[in-house]
Amino acid sequence: MNKNKLFQQFVRFTTSVHQVTYDMTKEIRIENVTTVQYKILELITVSQPVTLSEISECLHLSLPNASRELKKLIQYQLCEKIIDPNDRRKFDIRLTEEGTVLMNKVFQQLEINFQERINNLSEPELKEIQNAFEILQTKFFA
């Protein structure tokens, strides 16, 4: 196995993932929510609860920038801090009920976009994609 060729394929794959993600989300507009704030909401949705450090690391934001954007999302009542009762300096972040409703609507639209992309694939092709996702998730992204 040529690991350099495998790496080049990985680079092409991740670039394609970013492009498809952009294509599937570019039409999604949430009033008063910036692209960075949307990415924070998306991360919280799939990984909650999260910490400020996790948001900062995952989205390549400085801690002050992540904190500022999170503060705005809290003001919009889309997410909330859950204070650790054992250490009041620590907190987790999760969606509020309003944030959950909003992100459910967003993910419904994303699912429609996803369904459109896979609409013309055969059952064996869909199974191949499912298997590829499972392999990537368990062998590489775990």
How do the strands and helices of this protein lay out in sequence?
Layout: H1 3-25, H2 35-47, H3 52-58, H4 63-75, E1 79-84, E2 87-95, H5 97-118, H6 123-140
Antiparallel strand pairs: 1-2
Helix pairs in contact: 2-4, 3-4
Textual characterization of the structure:
The protein has 142 residues and is mainly α. It has a single domain, classed as Arc Repressor Mutant, subunit A (Orthogonal Bundle), CATH 1.10.10.10. It has helices at residues 3-25, 35-47, 52-58, 63-75, 97-118, 123-140, and strands at residues 79-84, 87-95. The chain has a two-stranded antiparallel sheet. A hairpin with a 2-residue loop joins strand 1 and strand 2. Helix 2 (35-47) packs across helix 4 and helix 3 packs across helix 4 (63-75). The protein is globular. It starts with a helix and ends with a helix. The model has no long low-confidence stretch (mean pLDDT 93).
Record keyword descriptors for this entry.
142 residues, mainly alpha, Arc Repressor Mutant, subunit A, 2 strands
Which CATH architecture would you pick?
Orthogonal Bundle
- The chain-level structural class is mainly alpha
User: Could you give me the name of the CATH homologous superfamily?
Assistant: Winged helix-like DNA-binding domain superfamily/Winged helix DNA-binding domain
Q: What is the β-strand count?
A: 2
**Helix percentage range:** 55-70%
CATH class: Mainly Alpha
Question: Shape from CA axes?
Answer: globular
Measured between the Cα atoms of the first and last residue, the distance is: 22 Å
Strand order of the largest sheet: 1-2
